[in-house]
Amino acid sequence: MNIVGKKVLLTGGSAGIGKALAFQLQAEGADVTVTGRNVQRLAELRTQGFGAIEADLSNAQGVDALIAEWGKKDLDILINNAGMGVETNYAEGKVDPDGADACFYANLSAPARLTGGLLRWLRKRPEASIVFVTSGLALAPSKDAAVYCATKAGLRSFAFSLRAQFKNEPVHVIEALPPMVDTQMTSAYDVSKMSPEHCAGDILDAIKRNKAEVHIGQTRLLRFVQGISPSLARRIMLNL
Question: Quick check: is 90 catalytic?
Fold first, then answer.
């Protein structure tokens, strides 16, 4: 997909991966509108040439308000990036039912509802993309984030089914599976993390190539492996 001139709606675009992706899309010539809940961050992004909509996607009313705000404007790329985390370990009694419900809605119900609400505008375009930012945890869940992992696994399944439904239409369904990225959500974890810019770069590459599924980080690894000796490449790949 040629990004130049494309109309993009990017949820959760005022910080972290979303903000990094917004700037990279803008640099490629896209017309980007971001959503978020922090009024000051959104105001700053407006001064930098972005459209910005205040939106709370943790409930149906917030999603419907965003759909109404978008109105009848053209839409080429919808990026479902917004989400939230909640720590849950049922065996240890770390259970927050309301937090779990909010996590399920923001991470799974909201992307599905938003996609359904904006689909008619995407289908009017000669070529369109719907991007779902899931997580590597959709494939390898963490014991301390049972609900979060379940939402990402559900979103992965939704993306898979949607891709099959649009098999014969120029609507590309893309799933991006990041590893742990250095964002506000992961600030409590003292481990090696990918930069938001690195993650955003791989998502942008997937959009440009209409790639159905991208495991973030592997793109650069594979390019590196292709440039070294076959024997060393084989040892690296066997130890992943």
Answer: no
